[in-house]
Design goal:
Phosphatidylinositol kinase; 5-stranded antiparallel β-sheet; 2 domains; alpha+beta
């Protein structure tokens, strides 16, 4: 899949209009797929094609607190860390050239709207046994609700992963369930800053001890990050600055030292993204 995403032809289908940055829906076909008679390549789009999201650097809006034209690299770096650390929460993602220049290309995930969602709004008092509350909220028409998320092994792993990559924008809508029941997290363009910026709706375990399996993952990741010749470092070095890599190592070491899920910041930086869902 990574080879296809990296080398296949990109056939642009349209733009995701509600995205905050340039975001194009594409079909990716193998380089040797047969073209149709008019030579525009559309004939190969339905043979061995996969759907993907292409986010070119030139479509990125400048942000005051992130370096310009780095969001695509961060999308890829979070996949690399998810893959190397065994979380498997980020769909396959590569950095490559395309019709609008260099950008990230990520495998499309069909979201099952009928599946039980990971983050939900519930009436106060309706918290389930396998859910944890994040905050009370009020909707625009005055209805009182509770923002909750699931309390299971996958979601706890995602909470650890978000802390590792310093995710500054973990909204509920960034969590997908495909028709087969697999879970994914998407939209990681504003991760891996060298300064603390964790902003998430997954605060349900703040201050709780880390699960043993997550401690084992963090130890293995720390070993990989400390080995400058490791495959992980070779994959991350072209994507992140030295300072960002050092901050990544520090976050992993700090979580292992405390043994706990991080607490929301007390620096005035918002702990919840807007909108949270």
């Amino acid at each position: 899949m990574l080879t296809l995403l990296r080398t296949g032809r990109l056939h642009v289908l349209g733009q995701i209009a509600e995205a905050s940055n340039g975001c194009l829906l594409v079909d990716v076909t193998p380089e040797d797929a047969a073209e149709d008679g008019d030579g525009d390549g559309d004939g190969g789009a339905d043979r061995a094609a996969v759907r993907a999201i292409y986010k070119p650097q030139r479509g990125e809006r400048p942000l005051w607190d992130f370096p310009t034209a780095t969001l695509a690299q961060r999308e890829v770096a979070t996949f690399v860390i998810s893959d190397a650390g065994g979380w498997g929460v980020v769909p396959p993602t590569v950095l490559r050239d395309g019709p609008w220049g260099i950008g990230s290309v990520q495998l499309w995930v069909d979201h099952d709207e009928a599946a039980r969602q990971i983050v939900e709004l519930l009436p106060p008092g309706d918290l389930g046994k396998d859910q944890v509350a994040v905050m009370a909220a009020e909707l625009s028409h005055g209805e009182q609700v509770l923002v909750v998320h699931r309390d299971d092994e996958w979601t706890r792993g995602l909470g650890v992963f978000d802390a590792v990559v310093n995710n500054a924008d973990r909204k509920g809508s960034h969590l997908l369930v495909d028709p087969s029941g697999r879970h994914f997290g998407i939209d990681h363009g504003i991760c891996l800053h060298s300064e603390p910026k964790l902003r998430t709706v997954l605060w349900g375990w703040a201050g709780d001890p880390l699960p043993e399996n997550e401690i084992a993952r963090l130890n293995a990741l720390a070993d990989d990050l400390d080995d400058l010749d490791s495959e992980l470092n070779q994959r991350l070095t072209p994507l992140l600055t030295l300072r960002e890599l050092q901050a990544l190592r520090h976050r992993v070491a700090e979580m292992l030292e405390t043994g706990d899920f991080p607490m929301p910041p007390d620096t005035g930086y918002p702990a919840i993204p807007w909108p949270p869902l």
